[in-house]
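Example 3.2
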Amino acid sequence: MVGGTLLVAIGLLVLLAQSIQTDMLGLLFLPALGGLFLVAGIVGRQAGFIIPGGILTGIGLGAIFTQSPALAATETAQGGVFFIGFALGWFLITILSKLFTHETQWWPLIPGTIMMLVGGALLLGALNVLEFAGYWWPLILVALGLSIIVRRK
């Protein structure tokens, strides 16, 4: 029942989006789609719908945040607010699964926290996080590999 209702609602949302061509509707499409999945997950008490709902809602929030002139003046700041919006969607998965399902989904806190930290650093402009991470990430792999080797002996 929930799956069928979700398909009908998605179809109607897509028809609406095709018939009304405005920039604002385009920005609201992903959060609306995510909202449909969230409602389906809450009604059906299934994390399987809440997970894509949180992800789609987070991407939509990030896109909306980047369009706000007050929040994002530079490209780096736009990237920061996008990551923060996206992180909120991941946190939403944990919150809603705790409230409405039998099993709390804790794992979304990991990507959500990483995105929130990267977004905050980009927004603050304290350092160019992506450039830094792009150069030094192999050292993390080396350290991780060494720790596994040492623990095996």
